[in-house]
Amino acid sequence: MPVLKDEYNAQHNDTREVLVDQWTRNGRVFVANEPVIGAEETMSANGTAILLTAPSLRYTVPEGVLVVPIHASLAIVTVAAKDDIFGVVVTASDSFTSGGDAVAMLVKNALVNGTSEARSTSLTNIHYSDTAIVEAALIAPRSLKVMNSNPPATKQQWNPEYNILKGDPMVYLRGPASFLVFAVQETTPAEATFSMSWAELDINEFTA
To answer: What pTM was computed for the model?
Structure first.
């Protein structure tokens, strides 16, 4: 019997949810957010297009590490009558060059077990663009999502998101690789709160 599109999508997302649940139970999922919860941070420089060498958020997957990005979400206060762009790109290199935050973003294991951590992250160069981030030229970049906001008539909040549990593309990043998030506002740099999550898997289980 043929499987209808909506049924296929439901089954597809259920499978991903099971995987993420298993990874979380095994202490392999990490969450990250702004250093002071609820305090907005500066995103990429203003513009009308994504500049691939100037992300708003990023992390490096080092050699020998296997990662599945799970989500990246922003809460942006938009400017009246101006465009905002959101994008997520991965690249097959550690492209980080310079810049980033003076105060590191908070990175915690998603398995909450008192004050002890199930394990610590193996990722490096986990940054937001408090100081402009500079990336080297990207190698074999892949676009996972690009969104444009409709210019609002009044100032309001926009909540763009990349999320594999909501049907966005799922990728495995075998280091070296980089995960880049872009938030570009037309006239002035966007201010936003943010959160990200990812799973760090056993590289020995990767067979490709």
So the answer is: 0.89
d(CA 193, CA 75): 5
Domain extents in the chain: 5-205
Q: If pLDDT is split at 50, 70 and 90, which confidence band does 156 have?
A: confident
Residue 46 has pLDDT above 50, yes or no: yes
Q: Please give the order of strands across the beta sheet that includes 57-61.
A: 124-128, 57-61, 177-185, 84-91, 142-148
Buried b (16+ CB within 10 A) or exposed e, 152-173: beeeeebebbbebeeebeeeeb
Q: Are 122 and 128 in contact (CB under 8 A)?
A: no
Q: What is the pLDDT confidence band of residue 44, given thresholds at 50, 70 and 90?
A: confident
HSE of 139, CA atoms in CB hemisphere, 13 A: 10
R_g of the chain, CA atoms, integer Å? 17
- Hey, what are 187's tokens? 């006239």
